[in-house]
């Protein structure tokens, strides 16, 4: 009897990981990418003798599959996905597929902003607390590859709405929803409620044994919760009001109360500063307390965590000017958070591929803190239109090197040059990491 065909769309980190897991589970695996496949992924697939194609999809190969694992980057309106759905061939995410093959406890973190930071911090706290834990999802080595090669008791998964859209049986033991703000609306018919519904899929299949951790201060989350039954135990966090079971702020202390477990820590001792990071730290702290980690171990981890690359990452100082790489800010909200945490005058580097951004929410912060804007993108008209009344100097540049140089000349001692683009990077760069690295290189050369 021949083994069943599993087709995988997209040969990136998640696709290649899923291919390896499928191979180990006895499937006949075929990987198909509409674009080119990166060299290191090609080498991996070849070394495992997994058949793959690039720069196009061979329909008969894919449509003969019993199931298809789709990369989160491929929208449902892609022709190949439409063909699969018309034939009732199940299309699932890598997370859904890999979740079948592990009994580890799942800690799943989603939200429009802060999920990478919160996932990384949660992983750091749990690992230092002695748990056998893996970190995957939108971050690091793919979940499927780790399920195939590791034996963790817990996983911290950073999960985007695109991954959630193709999750059906998968269940989070602990689900964290940080916030819901307009992002990726092009994938959700430009309706915020569709995007919000997608985020809430993180709570599906949960039972009374599970936990749902959310931000009580987030308006969109509150709106959805009014009309929704959540089976899991709810643990909200807030910096605006006192919470009986969950986390809140008392004076300058984070307080976490769950099942008689009381945890306190001054926000001044947190490694991550800025209002948004108090939320991220609260969410991570609640997870740690649900898993009954010791308070002293938690305090130590929350105090010594070093932030991830491309997220408010300090690149150094030149002539008293600080340079910060926040290339991961691919939406307006992320840039809002970055500006909100700045304590000096800012020369802001903005721009790239704009997903229908509404820049008006940045205006107040830009007026208060930004002395010049350096545009880094092919088409900067909307940035000029949005800020021409608030900022005297707006300059166009077309490379990371040029942007860094211009920003350096516009800044004076004590200022901060902040790369926080509020846009995707595909017009001039491979991805936001490439944009961040080129910026860091450019700063080194100043």
Can you put this structure into words, describing what you see?
The structure is a single chain. With 446 residues, this protein is an alpha/beta fold. The protein has three domains: 88 residues, Rossmann fold, CATH 3.40.50; 209 residues, Mur-like, catalytic domain (UDP-N-acetylmuramoyl-L-alanine:D-glutamate ligase), CATH 3.40.1190; 132 residues, Protein-Tyrosine Phosphatase, Chain A (Alpha-Beta Complex). The chain has 17 helices and 20 strands. The strands form four sheets. Strands 7-8-6-9-10-11 form a six-stranded parallel β-sheet, covered by helices on one side. A six-stranded mixed β-sheet has the order 15-16-20-17-18-19, sandwiched between helices. α1 links the parallel β1 and β2. The termini are far apart. The mean pLDDT is 91. It catalyses: UDP-N-acetyl-alpha-D-muramoyl-L-alanine + D-glutamate + ATP = UDP-N-acetyl-alpha-D-muramoyl-L-alanyl-D-glutamate + ADP + phosphate + H(+). Belongs to the MurCDEF family. Pathway: Cell wall biogenesis; peptidoglycan biosynthesis. One of its GO terms (cellular component) is cytoplasm.
